[in-house]
């Protein structure tokens, strides 16, 4: 007896593919498996389609990761818009940005290679610029300062994020810092007199305290340093 077949008309309609769905599925894969697993092929598999179908919406894996970061930037809260002075609000905004990068290890590294240029990235750029201007920073210095601040936060997150599976043999951040501290404390006073004399100061402060200081130092430096004359 022949096995009855289901008519195509009786099958549930397949959900239409879209850029939004692709990005949402990529974020879920990142949460469960890590950024490195969020390839075009893996996402296509999750969406029950072929990789070629995704290229209609996303150019390549790098562009996919950039689009994901831009989507996540849309979650940045504007709740700090009226709390504290402009520098405090700027620091809070940059910390929110850093928290997104820390929540998805590897994403910061991707952002260093291909900067996100989507709508939410532009909004973040605008908010940082606006807070610098509100703080009295000259327009030309603020315009260059935005790039410096966002680069610092991205690079710091990339440096301190959890190693990817391909880096499994690399030292973890706490191990790496311990090795550095040991090396500095073992410095020969004859060849490295400044380190030997001030090693406690060099290694002082928690990571959070050092990040806060770095942001404040960058803001102060941006406000005080004129840009080169255009010739």
TrEMBL record:
<keyword id="KW-0804">Transcription</keyword>
<feature type="DNA-binding region" description="H-T-H motif">
    <location>
        <begin position="39"/>
        <end position="58"/>
    </location>
</feature>
<dbReference type="GO" id="GO:0045892">
    <property type="term" value="P:negative regulation of DNA-templated transcription"/>
</dbReference>
<dbReference type="InterPro" id="IPR009057">
    <property type="entry name" value="Homeodomain-like_sf"/>
</dbReference>
<protein>
    <submittedName>
        <fullName>TetR family transcriptional regulator</fullName>
    </submittedName>
</protein>
<dbReference type="InterPro" id="IPR036271">
    <property type="entry name" value="Tet_transcr_reg_TetR-rel_C_sf"/>
</dbReference>
<dbReference type="InterPro" id="IPR001647">
    <property type="entry name" value="HTH_TetR"/>
</dbReference>
<dbReference type="GO" id="GO:0003677">
    <property type="term" value="F:DNA binding"/>
</dbReference>
<keyword id="KW-0805">Transcription regulation</keyword>
<keyword id="KW-0238">DNA-binding</keyword>
<dbReference type="Pfam" id="PF02909">
    <property type="entry name" value="TetR_C_1"/>
</dbReference>
<feature type="domain" description="HTH tetR-type">
    <location>
        <begin position="16"/>
        <end position="76"/>
    </location>
</feature>
<dbReference type="InterPro" id="IPR004111">
    <property type="entry name" value="Repressor_TetR_C"/>
</dbReference>
